[in-house]
Amino acid sequence: MSSPPPTPDQQSQRTAEAKAAFTASLRSAATNYDSQLRDRARNIHDNATVLDKQEADVRRATEQLAKQNDQLAKVADQARDGLKEIGDVQNWAELIERDLLIVEETVRLAEEREECHDGHEVQVDGDGNNLKDNGKGKKGQKGWFWW
Fold this sequence. Notes:
Blueprint: H1 8-117
Pfam families: GCN5L1
GO biological process, one term: endosomal transport
GO cellular component, one term: BLOC-1 complex
């Protein structure tokens, strides 16, 4: 029992129906993918807005950090300059102290010479220290300054 061969009209109608069914299945699959792609595109678009906002926040924070870094660099430079000044003051103080010691030693030697000329006996060691108490201070004491 075989069926009679289809007529050309039936053949073309079957072909049209097959094409329509195939096109409908493609559209159905495309719609399924299309909705997924539309959801992804919407998500990407929403995330792009959030990312732009975050980028602006990061840019502002970076600018604030740069300003703070500049301020800290100024403070560090001021501290460095202050330390240099302290070193300069210390050096200056050491030079003045050395000069005062020289003046003190010169005055001491002048006083000893004056005492020698006044008829007092003065004995000094190799460093110029007074070895004998002559009523002017303790034995071996040096001058006016005590540091």
